[in-house]
Amino acid sequence: VLGINREGPKRTQFLHRLQGEIAKRGVVDVLRTGIRHGPAHVELFYGTPTPGNVKAVERFSNNIFSVSRQLRYSSVETALSLDMAVFINGLPIATFELKNRLTKQTVLDAVEQYQRDRDPKELLLQFGRCAVHFALDDHEVRFCTHLTGKGSWFLPFNKGHNNGAGNPPNPNGIATDYLWKEILTKEGLTDILANYAQIVEE
Question: Please, are residues 110 and 135 in contact by the beta-carbon 8 Å criterion?
């Protein structure tokens, strides 16, 4: 689409269109299917390439995966920040509250922070605008896809240990580093977004 690479009215118009589509369809569907803007179809994300497809590999390599620490997310309470957020091509995918036992805080403190201190009316925290919110410490991971304040429901996202809850000890690091090393890799995150994540209407 001509003109959206530069600051100006056309870029602003496109960003308003993008914002509206995310509000209507959610960020996952917008990434997956792109948006129509005027006469053009704008792709915003390239999925996992099939083996041997050189063009698809090249397109996938154009995706920009980024991480922001201490993300200030509120235009009203400007001092508020999330510990971390992950973006693909500038669109928010996951937020994180990180705790550790050395500071005497656990995953439950992270969950409580989302429930008590994170207003679900904030744009970034509204349903569908970000795919998932993670609360974790060095032993456990929990996640929520729909923040509702005190009623936010966080499910465990652990490997399990000895036929029970939690995670096995990790001789090479913290017990929850599988989240970064196995799940939230570029390929893993792309697979989840392209093939599994969806908004279910009841």
Answer: yes
